[in-house]
Amino acid sequence: MTTQVADSKTSPIADHLTEAILAVQRRSPGGTVFHQAVSEVLGALEPVLVKHPEYVESAVLARLCEPERQIMFRVPWVDDAGRIRVNRGFRVEFNSALGPYKGGLRFHPSVDLDVIRFLGFEQIFKNALTGLGIGAGKGGADFNPAGRSEGEVMRFCQSFITELYRHLGESTDVPAGDIGVGGRELGYMFGQYKRIVNRFEAGVLTGKGIGWGGSHTRVEATGYGTVFFLRDMLATRGRSLDGRRAVVSGSGNVAIYAIEKAQALGAIVVACSDSTGYVIDHSGIDVELLKNVKEVRRGRLSQYATERASAVHVTHGSVFDVPCDLVLPCATQNELNAEHAATLIRNGVVAVAEGANMPCTADASALFRAAGILFAPGKAANAGGVATSALEMQQNAARTSWTRTETEQRLEMIMHSIHDHARETASAYTGEPDNYVVGAAIGGFIRVADAMLAQGVV
């Protein structure tokens, strides 16, 4: 993997950044996506380290890149046939300088320690940007709930939380959902946690059902927030979503609600995808049908195309081949590469907002920015999910519940604040307000680093 930092390769600050990146690679060999995330963030920090040498002198980078705690454990469970299964569970508690560890749980076969470290590291800056007093963590297991019965999913979730519960708490570590972990899985985990500790600690998990401590708009928050950020970004160039053709990768929770909000604000989402391919629907994705297929029936996009006369299911190529003005990659990391970026640029894309965590490769994001395309990194654009989780924690602490309208208004205000903070930070440190990559990285870094320095060497 190529180590990249800012342009001044021979300056002492650049040397310090290079050594910090190499140190991470030595200490965590084989951590491909974790190394990528560290390189991308640290590669943006030279301007702030030049102005604030105290961050160098205090070795804050070395401390920031090393998780405070890494937990890996066995998850045994019994399937419907009576066979004993064993999966591996993870929780990386990365940084608590700003508050209790906060971040989702992902259940997917691709989950390993490298993926969880990467996600936890990204969470540091994302959570800091919200300004809501939450630290950063991430967890999950290499379990795939797809195709499993309700009983199997319940037994797995109960076994998983039976080990993890001892590390959780409203003021310690507060997980939420992520890929493969929705309201069903969170419900089973919360029930088992409550049974073990014999307390109803509503704030120990977020993403709960509305009737038992959950928050309105939490399900929609990541997708909605990404579109709010995209709208604010377009407004800086006097543009709007109205009439724009958009492509969304993925068709899970984030993608569905990004499509819903984008179309509510006037865009026409003409394509989305899943592991079987993608659908093109030039009349605009039918969100209610998509929800029914994916959330109710847990089906595939081929079913959507079968039931929607205007849609075509494509099993070759990429959803990013579809000509569009706006792109929201909402599936998984590194799904959009340099070749895809070049195709999108040729087809006239004007803005890209990451709904997933690091869905664009470093080369792809560099191509977008070099072409003058507005580009919003995930640590800023998709912070709406964790922001609304923090709002859920506030409601739990006060034993109250806000209306859907009030919660969405708060989400919208938070995303507007994140956008403006990233833009102002980029302008202050680079003179380029459109450089949201640097603005988000530095903006989040300063908040966490200052708290770390204030709290001493811990």
Task: Give the second-level CATH assignment, the architecture of the largest domain.
Answer: 3-Layer(aba) Sandwich
Number of DSSP E strands: 12
Residue stretches low in confidence (pLDDT < 50, at least 5 long) are: 1-9
* Count of runs of 4 or more consecutive helical residues: 18
Overall number of domains: 3
N-to-C SSE series?
HHHHHEEEHEHEHHEHEEHHEEHEHEHHHH
Q: CATH superfamily of the largest domain, please?
A: NAD(P)-binding Rossmann-like Domain
Percent of residues in helices? 40-55%
Q: Decide which structural class fits the backbone.
A: alpha/beta
Rounded to the nearest angstrom, the radius of gyration is 21 Å
* Overall mean pLDDT: 96
Query: β content, as a range?
Result: 15-25%
What characterizes the major β-sheet? 7 strands, mixed
CATH topology of the largest domain: Rossmann fold
Shape: globular
The CATH class label of the largest domain is Alpha Beta
